[in-house]
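Explain this record to help learners:
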Amino acid sequence: MYRDNFSRYLALMKHLIFLCAYLYANLLVAQNYENVDSTFKPGQHVAVFGHHVNLRSAPSIKASAVAMLRIGDRVEIVTRTSETFQYNGNTWPWYKVKNQEDNVGYVVGGLLAIDNFIIDGQHFLFSIKKVENGPTFLVTRTIQGVKQFVTLETELVHNHISVEVADGKGIKGVKNVIFIDYISEACGMEGGGYYLFYDGQGLFNVLHIEEIADAGVFYSREEIIFPSDPDGKPDKLIYSMEVTRTIDEATNWVEGKSMSRELEWREGALYPADFKKKP
């Protein structure tokens, strides 16, 4: 058993070394939510994140309105201008855009969705918000009914993220699961991510999981197995945690620990709430 565990550990360390090198060479693969001055490109079709947004005749809030844009409307990016506007803690450029009625005008980049997904007819949109001398938040919106929407803010560990939206993954009472995937910039930085749930009425910040690797020295990983996953259980979310540390490289002295626990989603919250603590 020791040899099997040690072989598994060595294979994992080789994988992590490769992964760290790959991430270092490919930092721009993930959407960088911090670099908002170059978010959108000419010819790109994006969704409107704001609601009742004025499409302006010039890149200024004092310019007359050409048309009204509603949340979820699609626009085509024509070009980015040199004019900027402070919105939600970020300095956004004004963009020249064209709507679906062929009206051409200008809108602040912060009122356009950085990411958007439509899953089984449910529309999700994402943007970014900064607090001066404080944290950065991912702002999630989902449209309900005729251009009505709900909003949720999630504090981020760092801004190199990608966002995935799936169905309810077999969780009773959950329509969609959103995963904010932290893309580590270098070894030793936090990966992992944050799960959000949508139950058809509201959005919920549910669970932050960590993944930290210092190749060959330390590895810590948390994971959630959902009911619809191959190893899942009906009506259960299985939380697991694994920590491995190298004590002495010369003699391949490796120590580790792991734990798992079954959780349930009840009335808008995980149970037990303090599942990471021992009874």
